[in-house]
Design goal:
The structure holds three protein chains of three kinds. By secondary structure, chain B is an alpha/beta fold. Chain B is built from eleven helices and nine strands. The chains are: A alpha/beta, B alpha/beta, C alpha/beta. Chains in contact: A-B, A-C, B-C.
Chain lengths: 593, 308, 390
C-alpha cells in the first residue's frame, strides 16, 4: 500500500475501476524534472571581501556569527586565519571593505571595524583553536614583525616548537616600532605579542640570530623586513637635519624624539610619509608633504590621506627635491622642481618627469625622506645560503610582494604551512595565485575555485537600506595635540548592527527563502557538516527549473546551469537511497576564502 | 538524467500534504500558496475545488499530488459545495474537519460570486481562498472581473478597460467575521492569517495575490518579485477586515515602489504608454490614499512579521 | 396514523421519516410548502438536520453533493425553472454516484411563464442519469421518498420523486404516516463506504481522461440498469413492512384490451376512470401506469403491450422534433422485438397524445376521446394535442 503513493497506477479492467470516480494514487512517479531546460545549482561561493583578503578570512560567516550574538564563534573563525586581529583591525587597508558588494547598494560594511572589535574583545583570551599534537620539530624565526609573529602562531598550532629572534628590544616590528600611536597604540601590539607568546612561543629580544642558529632548528623562517631606507639620490641628502621617515617615527615611538620644530619638508607619498608629516604636526612642527605625483596616485591608504587632509597637512603635488643645502642661518634650503606626468611606468601610474626650468628653492628646518624601503638580506647572510637553502623560508616584506601588515601576516601563514609540509615530509605545492587558508590546511579540506558573488547576484529586496555606523573618533582639532588613538573601537551594539548589514554573499545562513518559495517543493533547507552548518538539497527528479530559488536567494547561493553540469557534478556527489535523486551540496566551501 | 527513482521512504512517517510531481507551470504562485495553507490547516482538511488551474494541477484519475481529501466541483459552486461538505461533516459527527474552498479569480469574482455571497451571508463555517492570477488562466488567459486595468489578455487584446472588481469590499459588505488579503511573497503573513481563521467560526475569506508567470508573460523566476512589487507599490495592499467594519492595514511601506517598476516586469503590460502608466499610478495613489484614510489601524497581521 | 395532508407535506413527512441530515432548499412555487414544512420540522426538533437556506437551486444541488460526499443523507426539492437551473449539477450528482433524493413538483418551464402542472420539467432532465419515480397520489409521494433512499443508497444513483403541481402538491388526501421505528427498520442510517475518509484521502470527481472515461460512464449506466431489480427488492421489503405495493408499471384491465392508453402521474386515475366508462360501453380498453420512468421499464412495457393492437401514450409534455417523451420511450421499447402481434401484421400502432400542458385539466371525456382515436388506429397528427383550440 505504501507504493500507491509513488507508483503509476494502471487500470487494465473495469473490475479495477472504483465504483465512484475518485483518485487515490500519488503523483511521485511523475518526474517533472524532465520539463526543465536549465537547472539551479546550489553552491557555497566565495565573497568578494574574502577573495580580496590577504588572509582569506571567512568574512561573511564571521559577520553572520556576530549578528547572531555569537562573538566567541566569530572570533574563533577569525582566529583560524587572522593571527593579529587587534592590529589588523586598525591598520589593514581593508581590501574587504573596498570590494564589499554592499558598497554598490548603500554603504560598505565596516568589516575592519568589526575585526577590531573582536580582536580587542579577545586580546587577553587564550587561543580558542585546536592544536596538533606536539611534533619534535623546532623552528627558528628571525624577526618579530607581523610576518614572524604570524609564522610563530601558525607553527605553534601545527605542534612545532617556535623561537623568535628579535634584534630590537621590543617585539612587533614596524607595527610596534614605527606606526604612530594615534593609529596603532603600542599597548595593542604588546598585548598581541603577549597573546602569541602565551601560546608557548619563545621570544628572544635584543637577540641577533647567531651563526649556529640554523643548526639548532629544523627550519628557519626569515622575516627581517625591508628596513633599508631608500635614498633620494639628490645632492647632500646626508646633511644633518635630513633623516628618514622611519627613523623619525621609530624615535618618537621609542620616546627619544619628543619635539620637532620648524618647517619640515617630508618627501614621499606613502604611509610613512604621511605618518611622518602627521607626527611632526603633533610634535609642534609645520610639515609640508612633497610628492612627485598627484593625490590620486599617492600610495598611502585612503583613510590616512583623508585624515591628513582633515588635519590640514600641507601637501605639494607634482614636485620633487633636486638638491638640499645648508643655509647660513643654520637652516636648510631645498630646491624643488615641478613634475609632470607622462605615459605610465611599471606601477601603472603616470611617469613623473621634471619640467625644465621650474626649479624654485625654499628654506626649511628639516627634511624627512620617505620614499620607500629596500630589502637587504645580506646582514643575515651568515645564516646560510638564504635563497638556496631548503631549510630556510623567507617571509614578510623581505620576500617581496605587497607591503602591508596584512600581506606580511599572510606571508607568515604561508611560510608556516610550507615549513610544516617540509617538516612532515609532504610534497604538496601551495597555490601561488591565492592566499593559503590555514583552516583548510589544518582540516585537510579541498577548496574548489569559484567566482565570487557579484552585486547583481544579490537580491536587494531582502535588505532595507541601512546607513553604516562608524566608530567614534576624535575630531581633527582635538586629535592633533597628541598621539591619542584617533578612532575608537566600534561599540558592541554597533558592531552587531554593522554585521547585520552584511549580505553574507555566498554563504548559506538557513534563511529558508529558497525552500519557502519553491513551487514544486523540491528545494529543502538541510543541515550540513562544517561551514555554518546550513545548506540545501534540490530534488532534481521534480525540479522544473523555474529559477525562483536562483532569483530569490538573497545572497547568490544558486546559479542556473545546464543539465550537463548537473549530471557532471551529480555523478560525483549524488546521494541515492533515502534522499532519492538529490545532489548533495556538501561539496566543501567552493573557493571560500 | 535522474538516477534513482523517488521512493516511498522519502515520504517519511507523515507524508507531505502536497507532493512534487504536480502539473503546475514552472514558477506557479498558486501551488506555493496552497501548500502553505494546507500546512497550517493540517490533514483534517477537505478542499472544495471548482474549475480552475488546480483542476488540472492536481492530476488526472487515478492520481493526485495531495494527501488531503479533494472534491472537484463545477465552476460556480465552490462555496456551495463547501457549505454542503461542512454541513455533512457536522451532521456525521466530524465537526473538527476543516472545509476550505480553493477557487481562482473567475470562480470567486465572476461565476462563483453568487455562491460565495450566499455562503458569506449565511456565515457558513468555511474558509474561502481565492488565489488570484487576474484572469481565466486555466482556459488560456481570458479576462475576468479580477483583471486589472490595461492588462492584456486574449479577450482584451488592446488592454482591459475596466478596473479590477473590489472583491474585498463585496465580501466585507456581507459582514463575515474575517476577510483578508495575502500575497505569495509574504508567506509569514499568509500563515498568520490562516491561523487567525482557524480560531474563528464563520466565513473566512482570504484573497491571495498569486502571480502567474505564464499568463502575465514573465520569466518563471519573477513570480515572487512581481508579487512583492505589487504589494510595495500599493497595487495590492495587505489588509484585514474584521466583521465587515474594522479595517487593519498590515503593511505601509515607507517608500512606495513606483507602479512602473511593477508593471515593467510583465509582458501583459508591455504595450502601455507612459500616459497610461501615469494614469495607473494616479489611480493607485488615489485608492491607496482612500484606503489609508479609511483604515482603523496599521499593524502587521501578527507581531514580529517583517514585510519586505 | 392516517392524516389528511397535501402532497407537498407528504413529501416532507417522507423526508422526516427518512431522517435526512442536510437540507439545502430554495423556494419555488409549487414546491414551497415542502421547504416550509421541513423548516417547521427542524425548528420543532422533529427532524435533526442542517437546514441550509441556499441562494439558488444550483447551489442547492451543489450543497447536496457536498453533504452527500461527506457521507450525510441529503435532500432538496424544486420545480420547473429551479430544476432547469440545477441541470448541470444533476449531471454532476449522477456522475459522482451520490445517493441524493430530490422531490420535483412537476411544473411547466418558461418561457412563457406558467406555474401550473405539466411534466416538461422532469422530462427535460431525463438524460441526467437520475432515477425518476412518478407519483399518482399523496400516499405514493410519502412512500416514494423512503423507497427512493432505499434504492439510491443501494445502487449509488440519485433519485427524483415527481409529483404533479397543485393536483397533488396542494390537494389534501388521506395519507397513512408510517411509524418512525418501522421506517428505521427498512431504512438504516446512511453508511456509504465511498464517502470521505479523512485518513484515506481521495480526489472526488477528478479529471478522467479518455483512457478511463468510458469505464466511468459504463459503471454509471450499469448501476442504473441494475436499479430495476433493486427497485423491485425495495418494493417487496416495503410491501412487507407497510402492505403497500409500488411496481414499476401497473396494468389495468389489460387482459383482453385491444386499445390501451399509457400514462404517468396523477392523470393515471383519470385514465382509469375513462377505461371504466368505456368498458361499460363494451369497449375493450385498458391502461398502463408507469411509475418508474428512469430507468425505463422497457421489458415490462414490452411484455404488457406487445400483443395489444392499438397503443396510445399520454404525455404531459412535448419536445419539438421529438413529440412526447413517454411515447418515444414506449415506441422504442416495442421496436426490434422480432415479434408480430398478428392483428395488424406488425408491432402495435402507437399514437402519441399530448395534454395537460401548463396545467390545463384533462377530463374523463378528454381521455375517452383519446381512446376513440386509439381504437380508430389512425390519426392525421402525431402527437395529437388534446383539446387544442382550432
Amino acid at each position: 500500500m505504501a507504493d500507491k503513493k509513488t507508483e503509476k497506477i494502471n487500470i487494465p479492467s473495469i473490475a479495477d475501476f472504483p465504483e465512484v470516480p475518485s483518485s487515490w494514487g500519488g503523483m511521485l512517479w511523475n518526474e517533472t524534472g524532465s520539463w526543465r531546460f536549465a537547472a539551479p545549482l546550489f553552491a557555497e561561493r566565495p565573497s568578494p571581501c574574502s577573495t580580496a583578503c590577504p588572509l582569506s578570512n571567512s568574512i561573511p560567516k564571521i559577520m553572520h556569527l556576530v549578528k547572531e550574538g555569537d562573538t566567541k564563534g566569530a572570533f574563533e573563525l577569525l582566529a583560524w586565519e587572522d593571527p593579529i586581529p587587534a592590529v589588523l583591525g586598525r591598520v589593514c587597508p581593508a581590501f574587504c571593505v573596498v570590494e564589499c558588494n554592499r558598497s554598490q547598494y548603500d554603504e560598505a560594511v565596516g568589516i575592519r571595524d568589526i575585526e577590531r572589535r573582536l580582536g580587542d574583545d579577545f586580546i587577553n583570551s587564550p587561543s580558542p583553536l585546536p592544536r596538533r599534537d606536539k611534533t619534535n620539530k623546532g623552528v627558528g624565526i628571525i624577526g618579530s614583525g607581523p610576518a614572524g609573529l604570524s609564522a610563530a602562531y601558525f607553527l605553534t598550532l601545527l605542534g612545532h616548537t617556535v623561537t623568535i629572534f628579535e634584534r630590537e628590544n621590543v617585539a612587533g616590528g614596524i607595527p610596534r616600532l614605527s606606526i604612530p600611536d594615534y593609529r596603532l597604540p603600542k599597548e595593542i601590539v604588546e598585548k598581541t605579542v603577549e597573546a602569541i607568546t602565551r601560546m608557548g612561543v619563545k621570544l628572544r629580544l635584543g637577540a641577533e640570530a647567531g651563526m649556529d642558529t640554523g643548526k639548532n632548528f629544523d627550519a628557519l623562517f626569515v622575516s627581517p623586513g625591508a628596513v633599508v631606507t631608500m635614498a633620494l639620490n639628490i645632492e647632500d641628502e646626508n646633511l644633518p637635519g635630513v633623516r628618514s621617515g622611519t627613523e623619525l617615527l621609530k624615535g618618537v615611538k621609542a620616546g627619544s624624539i619628543k619635539e620637532v620644530r620648524g618647517k619640515i619638508a617630508v618627501v614621499g607619498g606613502g604611509n610613512t610619509a604621511l605618518d611622518a608629516a602627521r607626527t611632526i604636526l603633533r610634535l609642534g612642527g609645520e610639515p609640508v608633504l612633497i610628492y612627485r605625483r598627484t593625490a590620486v596616485e599617492m600610495p598611502a591608504f585612503a583613510d590616512e590621506i583623508k585624515e591628513a587632509a582633515e588635519e590640514n597637512i600641507l601637501m605639494e603635488f607634482l614636485k620633487a627635491p633636486v638638491v638640499v643645502k645648508s643655509t647660513d642661518g643654520g637652516r636648510l634650503s631645498v630646491t624643488l622642481i615641478d613634475m609632470e606626468l607622462v605615459e605610465s611606468d611599471e606601477s601603472g601610474r603616470g611617469r613623473p618627469v621634471p619640467v625644465k626650468g621650474s626649479e624654485r628653492t625654499i628654506e626649511i628646518d628639516g627634511l624627512v625622506t620617505a620614499v620607500g624601503e629596500k630589502i637587504d638580506l645580506s646582514p643575515i647572510g651568515y645564516l646560510g645560503n638564504i635563497e638556496g637553502d631548503e631549510k630556510i623560508f623567507i617571509g614578510g616584506d623581505a620576500a617581496g610582494g605587497d607591503r602591508t601588515v596584512a600581506h606580511a601576516a599572510a606571508s607568515g601563514k604561508r611560510g608556516a604551512v610550507a615549513i610544516d609540509l617540509k617538516l612532515m615530509g609532504k610534497n604538496v605545492d601551495l597555490p601561488a595565485d591565492r592566499p593559503v587558508s590555514f583552516r583548510a590546511y589544518f582540516n585537510g579540506e579541498e577548496k574548489a575555485e569559484a567566482e565570487p558573488v557579484s552585486f547583481d547576484e544579490i537580491n536587494t529586496d531582502y535588505f532595507p537600506k541601512a546607513e553604516r555606523r562608524r566608530p567614534e573618533g576624535l575630531t581633527p582639532e582635538v586629535r592633533t595635540v597628541d598621539f591619542s588613538e584617533i578612532e575608537a573601537t566600534l561599540a558592541p551594539t554597533d558592531s552587531v548592527y554593522e554585521a547585520s548589514r552584511c549580505f553574507v554573499c555566498g554563504t548559506c545562513i538557513d534563511c529558508k527563502t529558497c525552500e519557502s518559495f519553491c513551487p514544486d517543493f523540491t528545494v529543502r533547507a538541510v543541515k550540513m557538516a562544517g561551514k555554518l552548518g546550513f545548506g540545501v538539497e534540490i530534488d532534481y527528479t521534480y525540479c522544473k527549473g523555474c529559477g525562483i530559488c536562483v532569483r530569490e536567494c538573497p545572497r547568490g547561493m544558486f546559479t542556473m546551469v545546464d543539465e550537463e553540469t548537473i549530471e557532471r557534478l551529480g555523478r560525483q556527489d549524488i546521494k541515492g537511497g533515502e534522499k532519492g535523486t538529490t545532489i548533495s551540496t556538501d561539496r566543501g566551501e567552493a573557493g571560500d576564502r | 538524467m535522474s538516477v534513482d527513482k523517488a521512493d516511498a521512504k522519502k515520504l517519511g512517517k507523515t507524508p507531505p500534504l502536497f507532493t512534487p510531481g504536480h502539473l503546475a507551470c514552472p514558477g506557479c504562485g498558486g501551488t506555493l500558496a496552497l501548500n502553505r495553507v494546507l500546512n497550517v490547516l493540517g490533514k483534517k482538511t477537505v478542499i472544495s475545488l471548482p474549475a480552475c488551474c488546480f483542476s488540472i494541477i492536481t492530476g488526472a484519475f487515478p492520481h493526485m499530488p495531495l494527501n488531503v481529501n479533494l472534491v472537484h466541483t463545477a465552476f460556480e459552486t465552490a462555496a456551495a459545495l463547501a457549505t454542503g461538505l461542512k454541513a455533512g461533516f457536522e451532521m456525521t459527527g466530524r465537526e473538527d474537519v476543516t472545509v476550505m474552498a480553493w477557487a481562482g479569480d473567475g470562480g470567486t469574482f465572476d461565476i462563483g460570486l453568487q455562491a460565495l455571497s450566499g455562503a458569506a451571508e449565511r456565515n457558513e463555517d468555511i474558509f474561502f481562498f481565492c488565489y488570484d492570477n487576474e484572469a481565466y488562466m486555466n482556459t488560456g488567459n481570458q479576462r475576468s472581473g479580477a483583471t486589472p486595468l490595461c492588462s492584456w489578455t486574449t479577450t482584451t487584446p488592446t488592454g482591459e478597460t475596466m478596473e479590477k472588481k473590489d472583491i474585498m469590499g463585496i465580501v466585507a459588505a456581507h459582514q463575515i467575521p474575517y476577510a483578508a488579503t495575502a500575497s505569495i511573497a509574504h508567506l509569514d503573513d499568509l500563515d498568520a492569517k490562516v491561523r487567525k481563521g482557524v480560531e474563528i467560526r464563520g466565513t473566512k475569506f482570504i484573497h491571495i495575490f498569486s502571480a502567474c508567470p505564464t499568463g502575465w508573460r514573465m520569466p518563471p523566476d519573477m513570480t515572487i518579485k512581481a508579487a512583492r512589487l505589487a504589494v510595495k507599490s500599493g497595487v495590492f495592499p495587505l489588509m484585514e477586515i474584521f466583521d465587515g467594519e474594522r479595517r487593519v492595514l498590515n503593511y505601509r511601506p515607507e517608500e512606495q515602489t513606483p507602479v512602473r517598476e511593477y508593471l515593467g516586469l510583465q509582458g501583459r503590460f508591455s504595450h502601455l504608454t507612459d500616459g497610461e502608466i501615469e494614469e495607473i499610478q494616479r489611480r493607485v495613489d488615489e485608492r491607496w490614499g482612500k484606503l489609508v484614510a479609511l483604515v482603523d489601524e496599521v499593524r502587521p497581521s501578527e507581531d514580529g512579521i517583517e514585510y519586505i | 396514523m392516517k392524516m389528511l395532508m397535501e402532497g407537498n407535506h407528504a413529501v416532507s413527512w417522507g423526508v422526516m421519516l427518512s431522517r435526512v441530515q442536510v437540507l439545502p432548499v430554495y423556494p419555488i412555487t409549487p414546491q414551497t410548502h415542502i421547504s416550509e414544512a421541513l423548516a417547521d420540522f427542524v425548528a420543532e426538533g422533529k427532524l435533526d438536520a442542517r437546514y441550509i437556506k441556499v441562494e439558488s437551486e444550483h447551489s442547492a444541488m451543489a450543497a447536496c453533493i457536498g453533504a452527500s460526499t461527506a457521507g450525510a443523507r441529503a435532500f432538496t426539492a424544486t420545480s420547473s425553472q429551479g430544476l432547469a437551473l440545477m441541470h448541470e449539477m444533476l449531471h454532476w450528482a449522477a456522475g459522482a454516484r451520490l445517493p441524493i433524493v430530490m422531490a420535483n413538483v412537476n411544473r411547466a418551464i418558461g418561457s412563457p411563464w406558467n406555474i401550473w402542472n405539466d411534466q416538461s420539467d422532469s422530462m427535460s432532465q431525463r438524460d441526467t442519469g437520475w432515477l425518476q419515480f412518478y407519483c399518482e397520489d399523496n400516499q405514493e409521494c410519502l412512500d416514494s421518498i423512503i423507497l427512493a433512499y432505499m434504492v439510491s443508497e443501494a445502487v449509488l444513483v440519485p433519485s427524483m420523486v415527481v409529483l404533479d403541481a397543485f393536483i397533488l402538491s396542494h390537494t389534501q388526501e388521506a395519507v397513512e404516516t408510517p411509524r418512525a421505528e418501522d421506517v428505521d427498520a427498512i431504512l438504516p442510517p446512511l453508511d456509504n463506504p465511498n464517502a470521505i475518509d479523512i485518513d484515506a484521502p481521495r480526489a472526488y470527481s477528478p479529471v478522467v481522461a479518455p483512457d478511463n472515461f468510458t469505464e466511468a460512464k459504463f459503471k454509471q449506466f450499469r448501476a442504473s440498469e441494475e436499479a430495476i431489480s433493486v427497485i423491485e427488492d425495495a418494493g417487496a421489503k416495503f410491501k412487507d413492512a407497510f402492505g403497500r405495493d409500488y411496481p414499476l408499471v401497473t396494468p389495468y384491465m389489460m387482459d383482453d384490451a385491444e386499445a390501451v392508453l399509457v400514462a404517468a402521474g396523477a392523470v393515471s386515475g383519470t385514465v382509469r376512470g375513462a377505461v371504466d366508462t368505456l368498458r361499460g360501453d363494451g369497449k375493450k380498453v385498458g391502461m398502463v401506469k408507469i411509475r418508474t420512468f428512469r430507468p425505463f421499464p422497457a421489458k415490462q412495457i414490452r411484455d404488457i403491450l406487445l400483443n395489444v393492437p392499438n397503443v396510445g401514450v399520454l404525455d404531459k409534455s412535448v419536445f419539438p422534433g421529438a413529440g412526447g417523451p413517454i411515447a418515444q420511450e414506449v415506441r422504442a421499447s416495442l421496436y426490434n422485438t422480432g415479434k408480430l402481434n398478428g392483428a395488424n401484421g406488425g408491432p402495435p400502432k402507437v399514437t402519441g397524445f399530448v395534454g395537460g400542458l401548463g396545467g390545463r385539466d384533462i377530463t374523463v371525456a378528454d381521455v375517452a376521446g383519446a381512446f376513440k382515436t386509439i381504437i380508430k388506429g389512425e390519426t392525421a397528427d402525431d402527437p395529437v394535442f388534446l383539446g387544442l383550440k382550432k
